Every structure is written in C-alpha cells, then in structure tokens.
C-alpha cells in the first residue's frame, strides 16, 4: 500500500475465557504522509462486534480525519481533526468494513497514527475448547501484560513528541524575538548616526554663508 510506512506491527491472537467466543486483535503504528488518505479493511461477521481505537502520536497538531464505512457503502462514522477516539462497531452486515485516516488537509506535516482493532467472533466448535490448561492461562496473562506495556509505550511516545514539539516552538520563538530585538537596535543606531551626520555636514555651510 502506497503512502504509508509501517513503523510497528504487532498482531495478537488470543482466546477469551468465554465459551465459543474468540478475539482477534491487531495493533499498528503507521505514518501517513501529508496530503495522503490511507484506508484499511477488517472482516467482521454479522451480529459480531469490534472495537477500534486510534490516536495521533506525532506530527503537526496531532489531528487526523477519520471515516468508517460499512460493506454496503454506508458511512457509519465520520470525524474531522480528531486526536484520538474509541469506536464500537456492531456489525449488522457481514463483510469488509473500511476505515480511513485522511491527512489530505495537511500540506507539510506527516502524521504518525497508532490504532488497534479488537474483533469478537463466535466459534462453532464443541465444548472441548473450554478446557484450558495452566500453560494457556499463563500465556494469556503474559499477553495481557504485554499489551498493557505497548499501550503505555504509545502514550509515552506521544507525550515525548508533544514535549519535543513545544521545546522546538519555544526555541524558534525565542530566536525570532532575539533577531527582532537586534534588528531594531541596529536600525536605531543607524538612524541616530545618520541624524548626527547630517547636522555635522550642515554646520560648515552655514559658517561660510555668514
């Protein structure tokens, strides 16, 4: 897919403790260039649910346009200039649900967006799947802890990017103010010297006339 660079890819499959219900989870961190719109598709079964969370962690004013579209082309949700949000999707139609991140309003700033999709689906297998051994339980706990760590890292990266952006803005503003002060001072010195220079030039002429 053109126009985006994959920064981090983490695909997680986990089985919940609910009978006949499984969860598919995927989280991505991508870079969307300025003036580019990127779309993704997720298959969701009918009468199933999915949760989509996204947040802009770097770039510009940390905002992005978002659109969610059903398989039949119906716009289910639309947002403009949002930094983050969590959406709940209840699928009344089975198929490929399309969600897009739109950065076409930005002419210079690329955006780094983290998003996560959690989709539940029913399993028609028998009750033997309910028998979960100790190793599987430990693996699920470790997986949950790892997901929590990844989420903390995303928030830390966003806060760090905000702090760095503010630091750069303060430095640029200070440099501009310093430049303006020096320029105004030089202009004042030049104007004062020119005034005294004109006075000295006119005095000899006046003496000769008298």
Describe this protein's structure.
By secondary structure, this protein is an alpha+beta fold. The protein has two domains: 20-122, Jelly Rolls (Sandwich); 133-197. The chain contains one helix and nine strands; from the N terminus they run βββββββββα. Residues 37-119 form the GOLD domain. The chain crosses the membrane at residues 175-196. It is found in: Endomembrane system; Membrane.
What's the structural blueprint in terms of helices and strands?
Elements: E1 4-15, E2 21-32, E3 37-44, E4 49-58, E5 64-69, E6 75-82, E7 84-90, E8 95-102, E9 111-122, H1 134-209
CATH architecture of the largest domain: Sandwich
The total beta strand count reads 9
Largest sheet: 5 strands, antiparallel
Kindly estimate the percentage of residues that lie in beta strands according to DSSP.
35-45%
Number of domains: 2
Structural class: alpha+beta
Membrane topology: Single-pass membrane protein; Single-pass type I membrane protein
Transmembrane segments: 175-196
Organism: Pomacea canaliculata (Golden apple snail)
Protein name: GOLD domain-containing protein
